[in-house]
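Hello again,

I reread your note about wanting to compare the complex against the isolated chains. To keep things tidy I'm splitting this into two emails, and this first one only covers the full assembly. Below are the input lines as submitted, including protein chains and any nucleic acid or small-molecule components. They are followed by the predicted structure of everything together. The single-chain runs will come separately.
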Amino acid sequence: MTEQPAVVVDGLVMRYADKLAVDGLSLTVAAHSITAVLGPNGAGKTTTLETCEGYRKPQQGSVRVLGLDPVRQRSQLLPRIGVMLQSGGAWSGVRAVEMLRHVARLHAHPVDVDVLVERLGLGDCGRTTYRRLSGGQQQRLGLAMAVVGRPELVFVDEPTAGLDPAVRREVWALLEELRTDGVTVVLTTHYMDEAERLADTVHIIDRGRLVGSGSPLELTRGGSVATIRLVVTEPFPPGAPDHLAASLGPGTEVTQLDAVSLLVTGPADASTLGKVSRWCEEQGVLPESLTLGQRNLEDVFLELTDHADHADHADLESS
Amino acid sequence: MSTFAPAPGAAPVVRQVLAQASMETRLMLRNGEQLLLAVVIPVIVLVGGVQGAERVDLSYGVDTFAPGVLALAIMSTSFTALAIATGFERRYGVLKRLGASPLSRTGLLGGKVLALLAVELVQVVVISAVALGLGWDPSVDVLGALATVVLGTAAFASLGLLVAGSLRAEATLAAANLVYLLLMAGGAVVLPATAYGSFGDVVSWLPSGALGEAMRAALGDAAFPVRDLVVLAAWTVVGASATARTFRWE
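Full-complex prediction:
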């Protein structure tokens, strides 16, 4: 069964003043799935989302949401989507449940407000005004406002930023329940574990471009290549990655993830492992952990966004 | 049935507008500063004006002050209170959030207008009761008074939204209060334009002067104030078209 995608972004370009926020981005979101849009700060995630929500008109390219043009067919589209903004969205003097009831009244067949309040643990702050809610409570209210109208598709912008672990899990459970009930979910996030745990599809964007796409498994498997992740107790000496790459020989790639960790991509066999530990011995560095096997989404993310980084620096230097 | 099974749809437009109006009315009446502006200050001006005029033997009595203070009350709600509330709605992303709900921009505006009229009803009841207690003896043209309230609200609301949609929230707060104070003192709202000497011809073209004069004519002389209503209508057109061109939602 092939169903038409819920969202199609095609060659989107968005520019603010002199800054290119989205640079020819194309992606699709399958219906009834959870899709995570992952990217560093300023990658163009929110701009892309807000263009899908009809707040901004595409400067180049096109956006279709549920088959509709979000700007020209906005009044048809709005009742069918739910939007959670990154912050704000309520009067400072409004009570939490009052706000939720208000948004519910704007819809034809809203979810039972009491049920939703219960599900998101907002019962305690029913009479508290919005400005007195904690950050986490404001986030949950924002999510509740996005789903109360029984939308077909919800856009959630960093739904768990700043939440404590227990509340994050509740939010995840709610997003999964939405999918089970047939709602399409598009979320932006910084958190790799969130994307890995929730998403059917992950789109990694960096500097306004799509740099990777697939299911978390597809992205982390990275073909037949395996990885060795090396974490040491003290920062590597300068030039360490290149030095290690040279001693490993062709067919392997070494990426420095941060001051104390390296990722070796290549045949993760006994010979490579031996070379890595000998190299540590020669360099006098003490391994804290040496992990074999699958890359996690964070490795993929750092590689993809890091490479883009280097490429851009090269561009700048050559110009 | 599963909790979130999609069943999208907008509520009927009338229900949306009424929901918005009742929400905004409640928020306005709940806010202490807004209440001060809406009811307390006009009542103080009314009582103080009437008693002060008696003491210094001014020719103005409660029959002059009562319509003027009603005009002041309408100005405070439809201009100052609306501008400040809308300025902070922009700042806190309320307008943005509602922009993604089924409520259309027309519906939002309709809700705001109904909320203003509801608050003004409360103001008119309270201020009229105090004025009657002070011995006010109105001579009313009902149609003229209603037209004055509606057009006065429209003119000042369009100007209030012009301020709120172009300045930052704090600047809106300052500007809306400053303009209110200046017009209260020198805009022929509370006192008639004739009290301003030769300057009176000028102030009667201001929205404040036109609103004050219209109210005094409709509640004092039982007249239908055509000229002043035309002035208010003209300000509405100017304010609304400028707002439509400059209003920023975020």
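For quick reference: Residues 223-294 of chain A form a domain with the Alpha-Beta Plaits fold (CATH 3.30.70.260).

B.
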